[in-house]
Each structure stands twice: as structure tokens, then as C-alpha cells.
Write a structure and sequence with these properties.
alpha+beta; two-stranded antiparallel ribbon; Beta-Lactamase; 49% helix; 7 strands
């Protein structure tokens, strides 16, 4: 392969991924010409990429509509992502309890690689989650209560790297976008063992979060609740008590899961799928 080969392959890969994003954004799929125009690709290149993706079942051709849509292999990838990120059933039950006892939308977040990721959310029609916060949400750590918990547990180099990578975008007029101000708030989070977020991510919504520590006391996860801003001040003491109590139970559940996995692996009964253990802060 010549020197331009690897670069050409990377360029093709990026185009194929961009093509998937474009098709995913279209509820009814897109015609090849629409894909070509959106990505500013020659038709020949568009058809070549589509042929590869159709062959791999990442895209399907709908001949009766002259359109291309997402393929079913992506569903398998999504299911696999859930298996890798979903917390143990003992934790999901506790997050459900938190939702019921706190009478609030409840969240469980973890470190995954260099990201802070929502691994589980429980809400209801009466107590809905924040609109954009579903499974896999991984943005705006500086503007969320669970994000601040995780940032407060990072070393200085880790925190600087995270902020350099993700930035500090203004989500609302209340978002903290100054690194020095954030530093002072994270020091308060460490001192109190709880993070507060008041309309910094979404107008009209306030959140509380507590850390889930490992055996060494490092935050490997966070549990959080969100409520409407007008009721936050009056409900905060009760939310604080419930959140700390169930957060403590979640910590015990994760440690128990980690012990079970350590015992199971030498006998060949453990999972051998390359996933990180609970002690590194990722779900089973």
C-alpha cells in the first residue's frame, strides 16, 4: 500500500460515518441524490459508500421508495452498547426506588473512558427526565450535578484534559463558563459530598447529585435527581436525605457486584467481553 493509502482509507471511513449520521437524521430515509447533496460528495462516491454499508447491513435500500434507510445491524450495535454500559439489576432497582421515594426523575452516571455518561434514568409522566438526558448522554459535565460530582473527583491534569476536550459551553444564562469559578464550586462539592445545579443545564430545572465511591474513596459514579425549579428550595432537605441514603446503597451494590465478578472469573464463569470492572467505575 502506498503512503496515501491509509489516509485515503481514513477519509473514506469518515465519509461513511457522516453518511450514516445523515441517514439517521431523516425519519423516512434519503435518496442517494439527497445524501450526495447534503455531504457534497460526487454521486459515484455516494453510491460506492452506500454499496459497502448495504452489504454490511448498516444501511438498507428501499427500492419502492428509491431511498436508503438505517440497517438492522445498527440495532445489534445499540443492544451491545446497552449491555456494556447498563448497570447491574441491583443498581437499576435502587435508581427506581430513588425515583419513587424522592418523587423525582432519577439518574445514574459513570466514568466511561474519558467521558461522563448517563447509564440509567428512571422517570415518569408526572416526574419527567430533563428532555435531552437519556441513556448515553455524555455532555456538559460542567453544567450538570452528576457531572460536577465526577469532575470534583478528578485530579488536576484529568480535569484540565476533560475541560479542554469538552469545553464549557453556556447551556443557559446560569451556566458556569469560567474555569476559576468552576474550581471553587468543585471544592465546595468535595467538602459537602453533594453537587447542586440550579437551571445551569436546562431552564426551569434544578438537580442534586452525590458521589458513589469505590473502596479507595474515589468517585466511580454518581446518582442524581431533578425537579422543577419552583419547588426545589422547599424540597431540597428531603431530597438530600433520600439521595444520600440510596447513594450509599448503590455504592454497596457496586462493590458486591465487583466481588462477585472477581470470584467468578477464575472459575471461567465471569464475563470475558473486555468490559471494565465496577472498581474502575463502569457498569458490569
Amino acid at each position: 500500500m502506498d503512503a496515501a493509502g491509509p489516509q485515503s482509507n481514513m477519509a473514506s471511513l469518515r465519509k461513511a460515518l457522516a453518511l450514516l449520521d445523515v441517514i439517521a437524521a431523516a425519519p423516512e430515509g434519503l435518496a442517494a441524490r439527497e445524501i450526495s447533496d447534503t455531504l457534497r460528495l460526487p454521486m459515484a462516491t455516494t453510491y460506492r459508500l452506500l454499496a459497502v454499508l448495504v452489504d454490511a447491513d448498516y444501511v438498507i435500500h428501499l427500492p419502492e421508495q428509491s431511498r436508503f434507510a438505517l440497517g438492522y445491524e445498527l440495532h445489534h450495535l445499540g443492544a451491545s452498547l446497552h449491555r456494556q454500559v447498563d448497570p447491574p439489576i441491583s443498581v437499576t432497582r435502587l435508581i427506581t426506588r430513588l425515583h419513587i421515594e424522592a418523587d423525582a426523575a432519577a439518574y445514574f452516571a459513570v466514568h466511561r473512558g474519558e467521558d461522563i455518561v448517563l447509564a440509567h434514568v428512571v422517570d415518569s409522566k408526572e416526574r419527567p427526565r430533563i428532555a435531552t438526558m437519556g441513556f448515553g448522554f455524555s455532555g456538559a459535565g460542567h453544567a450538570t450535578a452528576f457531572g460536577k460530582i465526577m469532575l470534583a473527583g478528578m485530579s488536576r491534569p484529568e480535569l484540565d484534559h476533560y475541560l479542554a476536550r469538552h469545553g464549557m459551553a453556556a447551556m443557559t444564562t446560569a451556566t458556569i463558563c469560567d474555569a476559576d469559578v468552576l474550581d471553587r464550586q468543585l471544592a465546595d462539592v468535595r467538602a459537602r459530598g453533594m453537587a447542586v445545579e440550579q437551571e445551569e443545564f436546562s431552564p426551569g430545572v434544578c438537580c442534586l447529585a452525590v458521589p458513589i465511591p469505590d473502596a479507595a474513596g474515589q468517585a466511580i459514579g454518581s446518582v442524581a435527581v431533578s425537579v422543577d425549579a419552583p419547588e426545589f428550595s422547599a424540597r431540597r432537605p428531603a431530597l438530600d436525605r433520600v439521595l444520600r441514603s440510596i447513594g450509599h446503597e448503590v455504592g454497596h451494590a457496586l462493590k458486591a457486584q465487583a466481588r462477585t465478578e472477581r470470584v467468578a472469573k477464575p472459575t471461567g464463569q465471569g464475563h470475558h467481553d473486555g468490559r471494565a470492572s465496577q472498581e474502575r467505575g463502569e457498569p458490569r
